[in-house]
Design a protein that fits this description.
280 residues; alpha+beta; six-stranded antiparallel β-sheet; five-stranded antiparallel β-sheet; 6 helices; 11 strands; 32% strand; elongated
């Protein structure tokens, strides 16, 4: 099972590159349609060339706009900012193509600044909103009280063969050691390091009129855990306060109630923490 990042910004997952391209061609279309051809030597030929190019640019703009809607998915087109982004970029490219002599150098500098700003913006979103799937857990069976609670799970960790385990309890909990880096380094692209050690389980019990959750003693540990080595994690844990780029070194144990025949995705956040999401 491949490890993947939930948030990314290629053309197939984010509409903004498509909107940017649509604005570029729409700006070129506006520039071409506002050109005068009467003073040209061959006015008829110039007029024909003008409208052929204008039609081509408009067609490309429409294709890119459709790409923004249907390739990342219509759900991604849901904010007024996207319309403002398209209008601003279209106006910018219109000026760049229509007034090349007076606006050319400025347009080039602004284009470079815009590309850099968009890259930084998307990079920040990817850094702080991204996550890495480290395992999938399928619940094969659940036995609930009044019978002794137990779980039968199929665990597929990243780049590992699937294993089937039997645990006591009604909740399962991935055992994950993480090294969380400071925000600046996350912004620069450094993701949380992890070591996925195994699976624990919990059961809900009644104590003094309250429901409490208690860890069971049927943990399962992988012979060769996925992620960083034990030596690396132990080094960072012992020198946590001495390493400038480290924000926290900790053990994550997050319990999730198991539903029979459901599949769960275990994900490590780029800026720390573990999520367990049901995916069917």
């Amino acid at each position: 099972m491949p490890v993947y990042t939930e948030f990314s910004y290629p053309l197939n997952t984010n509409p903004y590159p498509w909107i940017f391209l649509a604005a570029l061609f729409f700006g070129a279309f506006l520039s071409r349609t506002t050109r005068f051809t009467r003073q040209r030597r061959d006015a008829e030929r110039a007029r024909t060339r003008k409208w052929v190019l204008a039609s081509l640019y408009l067609s490309l703009a429409v294709v890119c706009a459709l790409g923004a809607v249907f390739i990342p998915g219509p759900a991604k087109i849901d904010t007024p900012f996207q319309l403002y982004f398209f209008a601003a970029c279209s106006f910018f490219f219109f000026l760049a193509f229509r007034f090349k002599k007076s606006f050319g150098i400025l347009a080039l500098l602004l284009a470079l600044a815009l590309v850099l700003a968009v890259q930084l913006f998307l990079g920040a979103l990817n850094a702080f909103s991204g996550e890495t799937e480290i395992a999938r857990i399928r619940v094969l069976s659940v036995q609930s009280p009044p019978q002794p609670p137990s779980l039968r799970l199929e665990v597929l960790a990243a780049q590992k063969e699937p294993v089937i385990i039997q645990l006591a309890g009604t909740h399962f909990a991935p055992l994950v050691k993480v090294v969380i880096f400071k925000d600046y380094f996350v912004f620069m692209g450094l993701k949380t390091w992890y070591r996925f050690e195994g699976i624990s389980s919990f059961a809900v019990e009644k104590r003094e009129g309250r429901s409490v959750i208690r860890q069971q003693d049927t943990d399962y540990y992988f012979p060769r855990p996925a992620g960083i080595s034990e030596q690396v994690w132990d080094f960072f844990a012992r020198h946590e306060n001495r390493i400038p780029l480290v924000k926290s070194v900790q053990y994550e144990i997050d319990a999730k109630r198991a539903r029979e025949l459901s599949t769960y995705s275990v994900r490590v956040q780029n800026d720390g923490g573990v999520e367990i999401l049901e995916i069917n």
